[in-house]
Specification:
Helix content is 61%, strand content 5%. By secondary structure, the chain is mainly alpha-helical.
Length: 127
């Protein structure tokens, strides 16, 4: 998958370089804070990719993003506890699971056997 003609890894590398250059030119970020910015960006990119590729799996990714953003906030000096970050991540995951319920279908039938994906070609279902 490409974003504006570039792979996600290219965008993340460009961001990492931009953060390092900005810090070199005086942006007050230490190495830990730079790493936190890059980790949060990577988590956000992962969430975006999960959303575009497999929306039914986005709830777990969203919880991880909340954790990454919480750690970024802590590294930047925001006074927030690990418990609050964990509770927020759990709440986001639960809300997304609630929202996704009924919008996705499990790839197994009532006997727990894998159901093949179906494709619609010219109005007909292909199995």
């Amino acid at each position: 998958m490409r974003i504006w003609g570039r792979e996600p890894a290219q965008w993340l590398a460009a961001l990492a370089i931009a953060v390092e250059v900005a810090a070199g030119w005086g942006l007050p970020l230490n190495e830990t804070q730079q790493a936190a910015v890059n980790a949060a960006a990577t988590a956000l990119m992962g969430l975006f990719l999960a959303w575009t590729v497999a929306r039914e799996k986005v709830a777990a990714a969203a919880g991880g993003v909340v954790g990454a953003l919480g750690q970024l906030a802590i590294s930047l000096g925001v006074d927030v506890s690990q418990e609050k970050i964990a509770m927020t991540g759990a709440a986001v995951t639960a809300l997304l699971a609630f929202w996704l319920y009924g919008k996705v279908t499990a790839p197994v039938d009532a006997n727990m056997e894998r159901v093949p994906k179906q494709r619609v070609i010219r109005g007909q279902v292909e199995r």
